[in-house]
Design a protein that fits this description.
The complex is a heterodimer of chains A (237) and B (386). Chain A is 36% helix and 25% strand. Chain A is of the alpha/beta class. Chain A starts with a strand and ends with a helix. The relative contact order of chain A is 0.18. In chain B, strands 1-4 form a two-stranded antiparallel ribbon. In chain B, strands 2-3 form a two-stranded antiparallel sheet. Classes of the chains: A alpha/beta (237), B mainly alpha (386). The structure holds adenosine-5'-triphosphate and magnesium ion (MG). The site of magnesium ion has 3 residues of chain A, from helix 1.
Chain lengths: 237, 386
């Protein structure tokens, strides 16, 4: 059974259809890539799925449960967590405290939360920064912090919004390894990414959005060979 | 090497800090034994009052980042609750003496006796309850809004409270205010305190409340609550997406802050023995409450203490025009000259203006408050040495 079902989701901002009638499913354990040109509606879809705002139409079903109308905190508690394209570090808190906030979603004990947080800080290899203020980190490390923080909430499904955006090739490679490591932990992922090479490498399946609509869905091979995608998206680059 | 940010010190209380804390508290406890000047004791009481207000606001404003500029509402709840009940208890001097005698015989019978009366001090609890209720109502209205809209809503709701109190004159005596002549005795551990003229009881009540608010703040900071409050302050969307219920935690922060603020109001009411809407429910007071934390340093345990240490003396000096008069008296300025005239006559009226200008300067040049500024300088020195 699919862990996430997106059924005919539309989101309107005034007259603009940022998402229109988008449907697809994600199976447990897989990495789903979500691509599309700027303004295609990828982030909007994440926002609809995680309760940041409700979809105008359609349904989101996570783990067999209808999510429409649930607040982001409930969504997170149910096991679906997202990172932000524009990173949102808790600037005046240390790296480990940032991650502890995520861990405290699952425990009331600060001591336990700290242990859980340090574990995730090590997973993203930020242990040398654990006592630094999050606001002072360079962008590459902020992106890692975003990932550590959501991992600490113990998600079943992780939604990553351009975690490689703005990174240099070496840093991107680290993130790719990180995503593959997370897959090994059995956590399902949906990944928004502009870097085509990277997304083709890590994804099991890919959904292409264009002007709010789903243009195509398939394996990376199918996507690169889809003439519509090539014309509307890859060709336009 | 590029240096990403400042190294963040985990401030788990160091042994030195604990010793310093205990030493200062011991000094404060001993203080009235050495200093009998009523003015000095008065200043100490004002310092305590400011600290209590600042610490209380700090929980919602400093830690949670919700700049309530309507805290006079909770202060007023405490003040009015306390004095209304105290008056209603129809404080009876004879019964009181009886109670006092009994108290010396046995605690139990005194307790039994006092249980038959509406205890005059119940008002403090009534004030706390009123503040709690008010905070939940205000929270449910204002927390729908963010940033500046929240600030404006908090001001508006506090104004509604002030106008209501002004008009509910059967209960509150409206614009006239409430005056009490004598305070009912306080019984602490078999000792009955009836003499309040020395200011000593107020001194210790104030000190106790300061320690209470510091303790509450410490407990908040060292628990899940503190982490969630600060996460909401830093980025509420991020906090929300990490499983934090914004409604629940913002309201919790406001409730804690409101109840503590009501205690400050009760303390003020019994100390001054007169309250009216202009003094305990005004926007002026709300702003003062905010300033204590902002000047001292928000989101830290001792920020409000520092804020009180700066603002109380400042306002005292300016109010008494100590500066102008000492310049004239020392002969530096001729009292008959235009400058002398200005200093002695006009400056004393301008103390609010000067106070305002100084506050703006501090905010401009020390955005992290005085405590933040001191910390920065010390950090720089430490870096310079190493
Ligand atoms: N809150 C909002 N109000 C109004 N319009 C919005 C809002 N959020 C997004 N949009 C619009 O919806 C469209 C889709 O935006 P979205 O951010 O989802 O795109 P995206 O695919 O994530 O783009 P990018 O690759 O640049 O991140 C854009 O035209 C955007 O301007
Ligand atoms: Mg986007």
């Amino acid at each position: 059974m699919a862990i996430l079902e997106i059924k005919h989701v539309s989101k309107f901002f005034g007259g603009l259809a940022a998402n229109s009638d988008v449907s697809f499913e994600i199976n447990p354990g897989m990495i789903m890539g979500l691509i599309g040109p700027n303004g295609a509606g990828k982030t909007t879809l994440f926002n609809c799925i995680t309760g940041y705002y409700p979809p105008s139409k359609g349904e989101v079903i996570f783990d067999g449960r209808r999510m429409n109308g649930l607040q982001p905190d409930k969504v997170c508690k149910l096991g679906m967590a997202r990172t932000w394209q524009k990173v949102r570090p808790l600037a005046k808190m240390s790296v480990v405290d940032n991650v502890m906030v995520g861990a405290l979603c699952r425990t009331n004990s600060l001591k336990l939360a700290r242990e859980m947080a340090m574990e995730q800080v090590r997973v993203v290899r930020l242990e040398h920064r654990s006592n630094f203020l999050a606001g002072g980190l360079p962008i590459g490390e902020r992106k890692k912090l975003e990932v550590a923080r959501v991992l600490a909430t113990q998600p079943k499904l992780l939604l990553l919004d351009e975690v490689m955006g703005g990174l240099n090739p070496a840093e991107s490679e680290e993130i790719i390894q990180l995503i593959l490591d997370i897959r090994k932990l059995g956590i399902t992922q949906m990944v928004i990414e502009h870097d085509m090479k990277a997304i083709m490498r890590i994804s099991d399946r890919i959904v292409v959005l264009n002007s709010g609509e789903k243009l195509a869905e398939g394996t990376p091979d199918e996507i690169v060979n889809n003439p519509e995608v090539v014309a509307a998206y890859l060709g336009s680059e | 090497m590029n240096h990403p940010g400042i190294l963040h010190n985990r401030h788990g209380a160091s042994p030195l800090a604990i010793i310093a804390f205990i030493a200062i508290v011991a000094l404060l406890i001993a203080f009235p034994g050495f200093v009998e000047s009523p003015y000095a004791r008065h200043i100490m009481v004002l310092l305590f009052l400011s600290t209590i207000m600042g610490e209380s606001w700090n929980i919602i404003g400093g830690y949670t980042g919700q700049y309530s500029v309507g805290h006079a509402a909770y202060f007023g709840a405490g003040a009015y609750g306390t004095l209304i009940v105290m008056n209603a208890a129809q404080f009876d001097q004879d019964k009181l003496l009886e109670l006092k005698d009994l108290a010396q015989d046995s605690h139990l019978s005194a307790l039994l006796l006092s249980a038959h009366y509406l205890h005059p001090w119940t008002g403090v609890l009534v004030g706390m309850l009123a503040a709690l209720t008010l905070s939940l109502i205000i929270g449910s209205i204002c927390f729908r809004l963010r940033g500046p809209y929240f600030v404006l809503a908090s001001i508006a709701v506090a104004e509604i409270v002030r106008i209501s109190v002004l008009n509910l004159s059967d209960l509150t005596q409206g614009a006239e205010g409430i005056l009490i002549s004598d305070l009912p005795p306080i019984i602490i551990g078999g000792r009955t305190i009836t003499d309040f003229s020395t200011k000593v009881p107020f001194y210790y009540i104030g000190l106790g409340l300061v320690l209470l608010t510091i303790l509450v703040t410490w407990l908040v900071q060292n628990s899940k609550l503190g982490y969630f409050f600060q996460a909401i302050r830093e980025d509420q969307d991020a906090a929300h997406s990490l499983g934090i219920s914004l409604t629940f935690y913002k309201n919790s922060a406001l409730a804690i802050s409101a109840v503590l603020t009501s205690l400050a109001g009760s303390f003020y009411a019994i100390y001054i023995k007169f309250i009216d809407p202009t003094t305990v429910l005004s926007l002026d007071l709300s702003v003062q409450i905010v300033l204590i934390s902002i000047i001292g340093g928000i989101g830290t345990i001792y920020g409000p203490v520092v804020g009180a240490l700066v603002l109380v003396p400042l306002s005292e000096i300016l109010r008494s025009n100590y500066l102008g008069e000492s310049l004239v008296n020392s002969g530096l300025v001729n009292p008959d000259s235009a400058v002398g005239n200005f200093l002695t006559e006009n400056l004393s009226h301008a103390h609010v203006l000067i106070y305002g200008i100084l506050v703006v300067l501090v905010i401009l040049f020390m955005p992290e408050g005085v405590l933040g500024f001191i910390r920065k300088i010390m950090a720089k020195k430490r870096l310079g040495r190493s």
